[in-house]
Design a protein that fits this description.
Helix 2 packs antiparallel against helix 3, helix 3 packs antiparallel against helix 4 and helix 5 runs antiparallel to helix 6. The protein contains ten helices and 16 strands. The strands form three sheets. A five-stranded mixed barrel has the order 3-4-5-6-8. Strands 10-15-9-16 form a four-stranded antiparallel beta sheet. It has a two-stranded antiparallel sheet with strand order 1-2. It has two domains: about 110 residues, Tetratricopeptide repeat domain (Serine Threonine Protein Phosphatase 5, Tetratricopeptide repeat), CATH 1.25.40; about 200 residues, no CATH class. The chain is of the alpha+beta class and about 350 residues long.
Length: about 350
């Protein structure tokens, strides 16, 4: 088949059958069987970029980053368009997982993203520019779904680059994740969060933990006479370089279908408590498909369950200092490290 002077081969029926069957197996979690079929498909049609894209995708699902990088590079070598292909995005994810920064930069640029040049290392004047870890891409805030195949939880974070996010919510202990950790995430959003002011934020799925946090997660019961008392603890923790989050009002329950859809979210850019983050449960937990803990609209309840992200040497001092600022309206008890 000739298009604009270029010969383009259509994949054979056998290639299509093997590929379709492989993706059915991937959906069932049978990665080994799918890999055998996709390898056979690549042997049948090695000139098709799709053959290697599919293999790169499978290796990404398996977190086999060396193989994902190798297959991804074969896919992009066969591309007919210069920019914007998802093949390059998969190469970028694999390169980021491997900390292959020159390739990650090349991948994001080939996809069509602007990657700021890295300054030369002042300690090594002969070091080339633009080969270090991508930074300064200004991708803003987004949400990430932790443990997407299990007891999923959507939390808020700051995008470091197209494949990594630093967690800025305090995840629930069931997620096994901590405030400040960096997770590798996929490139296709599954859901959106829409704020009242208008901005819409994508929800990406976590692939794996990229950088752990040394800061433990604590749960504590507060007696806070007013929202201002609660907000004071969150400011105190933030001023110390750590975090506090009122889980009684910041966590809502969503079924998976709602979590992966376009959902409204409260504003979270001010100094007060952050946007609600979502904990997935089977079925619809409320008549509207979601429920906010703490009963929005029912009036202030002084007893609050609060998550704290702070070192063991600091956490009690933060709480005691918070109480000392207004002992008549604040108390804490039952502090426990949970993650």
């Amino acid at each position: 088949m000739r298009i604009f002077g270029k010969v383009r081969h259509r994949p054979s029926a056998s290639w299509r059958q093997a590929t379709d069957r492989a993706f059915t197996l991937i959906g069932d979690g049978r990665y080994e069987d799918a890999g055998a079929l996709l390898t056979r498909a690549a042997d049948m049609e090695p000139w098709l970029s799709e053959s290697w894209f599919n293999l790169a995708l499978l290796h990404k699902f398996r977190h086999d980053w060396e193989q994902a990088r190798a297959a991804g590079l074969r896919a992009v070598a066969l591309l007919e368009r210069e920019a914007g292909a998802p093949d390059w995005w998969n190469v970028g994810i694999a390169a980021t997982a491997l900390q292959d920064w020159p390739l990650a930069r090349r991948a994001w640029q080939a996809y069509g993203l602007k990657v700021p040049r890295e300054p030369r290392d002042q300690r090594d004047p002969d070091a080339p520019e633009g080969l270090g870890e991508p930074s300064g891409m200004n991708l803003g805030s987004a949400a990430v779904r932790l443990s997407p195949e299990g007891e999923a939880e959507v939390v808020w974070g700051r995008r470091i680059d197209p494949a990594r996010m630093e967690i800025q919510s305090i995840p629930l202990p069931s997620s096994g994740r901590r405030w400040g950790e960096v997770v590798l995430h996929d490139g296709v959003p599954h859901g959106e969060r829409v704020t009242a002011a208008g901005p819409t934020y994508p929800v990406f799925d976590e692939i794996e933990l990229w950088a752990p946090s040394p800061v433990p997660t604590w749960v504590v019961l507060l007696e806070a006479a007013s929202e201002e008392d609660r907000d004071a603890l969150e400011r105190l923790a933030a001023d110390a370089g750590f975090a506090a989050e009122d889980w009684s009002s910041s966590v809502r329950l969503l079924c998976r279908s709602c979590s992966e859809s376009r959902m409204p979210s409260d504003e979270g850019d001010g100094p007060a408590h952050p946007d609600p983050h979502d904990h997935s449960v089977p079925g619809h937990p409320g008549p509207l498909g979601h429920m906010t803990n703490g009963g929005a609209g029912t009036g202030w309840v002084p007893e609050r369950e609060c998550g704290l992200a702070a070192p063991a040497t600091l956490v009690r001092g933060l709480l005691d200092g918070w109480v000392a600022d207004s002992p008549d309206t604040r108390e804490w008890r039952d502090l426990e490290e949970v993650c």
